[in-house]
Design goal:
The protein has 2 domains: 148 residues, 3-Layer(aba) Sandwich (Rossmann fold), CATH 3.40.50.720; 150 residues, 2-Layer Sandwich (Dihydrodipicolinate Reductase, domain 2), CATH 3.30.360. 32% of the residues lie in helices and 29% in strands. It is built from 9 helices and 16 strands. The strands form 3 sheets. The chain has an 8-stranded mixed beta sheet. It has a 6-stranded parallel beta sheet with strand order 3-2-1-4-5-6, with helices on both faces. A hairpin with a 2-residue loop joins β15 and β16. The radius of gyration is 20 Å and the shape is globular.
Length: 320
């Protein structure tokens, strides 16, 4: 706790830690304190926060336990994916609401255990699935409303090396591709169909870098093609309608370009006005934590997106 302000724990010092540090610097005030736990990147973290204009105070710490003893009001967990469960469990058992970057867990049982722990203790446990907050996806859905879907095809490829938002991004292979990519595909399908329970039909994997699979969501067939060492970044959606028409959205560069029956669609006019998806989900999390009665229908709550873990686990077994 921090007097009249809030104390927020940020666990993880990698690229996503830096992204969320920047988001918190814009969303919090000078009355607030951020406890940034990073074991290996103190120099980069210190340089980053020194350049923030105003906003909250930052305190850099080496160990999670140091931060937990200061009783933070909420936690953003962006550590390595295989540590998400352990870090979230420690925070929840201290009564700290959490936003965990995807994947919440690698196994259904672990995800269910965390969700149950949060629910039983009246805590918010959210999952960082930022595409659920992408205004351009929701706009695309509204632009094709009234047309019955038969199939969704998604292409999701990352380049081996690229520069994103001024920072060099390299392929990160510590997280299995299924758990790295499937939550994104699940989120896209969730927005476009409204279905939060998707059935995996089959899948195949080429080593640890490429993945393809078929699934179903409310009778709509989903085809997904994904990879992590492509020559260039690619984010594309193609919709087939039961009447024979088609629609597409290429959001390789957000907010993307869309078409309906080969005619261009207007772009998302809210892009650049509203917070970007990652910042929007952090803002929503802070609001949920501050509310005496959190909204249990909020899509990011773990209990509402457990299927993103269930589907990934099923696909992992099928694609071996």
């Amino acid at each position: 706790m921090n007097g009249d302000g809030r104390t927020i724990l940020l666990a993880g010092g990698g690229r996503w830690g830096r992204v969320h540090a920047s988001n918190l610097s814009a969303l919090l005030t000078s009355d607030d304190l951020v406890l940034w736990v990073t074991q290996h990147n103190h120099g980069a973290a210190s340089d980053l926060v020194s350049g923030f204009p105003g906003g909250p105070r930052f305190r850099l710490l080496n160990r999670l336990e140091e931060a937990l003893t200061l009783r933070p009001d909420g936690a953003l967990i962006v550590t390595a994916a295989d540590s998400h469960v352990a870090v979230a469990d420690r925070c929840l058992r201290r009564g700290i609401p959490c936003l965990v970057e995807k994947p919440l867990a690698f196994r259904r049982a672990e995800a269910m255990s965390l969700a149950e722990l949060a629910t039983n203790n009246g805590l918010v446990l959210a999952v960082g699935l930022h595409l659920l907050r992408a205004t351009y996806l929701r706009r695309f859905k509204s632009q094709v409303s009234g047309r019955k879907l038969s199939q969704i095809e998604i292409r999701w490829f990352d380049a081996a090396h690229e520069v994103r938002h001024g920072e060099r991004k390299a392929a990160y292979n510590r997280t299995p591709i299924v758990h790295d990519v499937y939550p994104h595909i699940w989120s896209i399908v969730r927005v476009l169909t409204g279905c939060d329970q998707q059935v995996i039909e089959d899948g195949s994997r080429i080593q640890q870098h490429n993945l393809s699979f078929r699934s179903w969501a409310l009778g709509v067939r989903v085809l997904a093609y994904c990879g992590r060492l492509a020559g260039a970044r690619e984010r594309k959606i193609k919709l087939d309608f039961c009447d024979g028409g088609t629609a597409s959205l290429d959001f390789t560069e957000e907010p993307g370009r869309g078409s309906l029956d080969n005619a261009p669609l207007p772009s998302d006019q809210r892009w650049g006005i509203e917070p970007r998806p990652v910042m929007a989900e952090v803002r929503d999390f802070l609001e949920q934590v501050s509310s005496p009665l959190p909204d249990r229908t909020w899509p990011h709550l773990a209990e509402n997106c457990i299927d993103s873990v269930i589907g990934a686990e099923a696909l992992d077994l099928l694609s071996h």
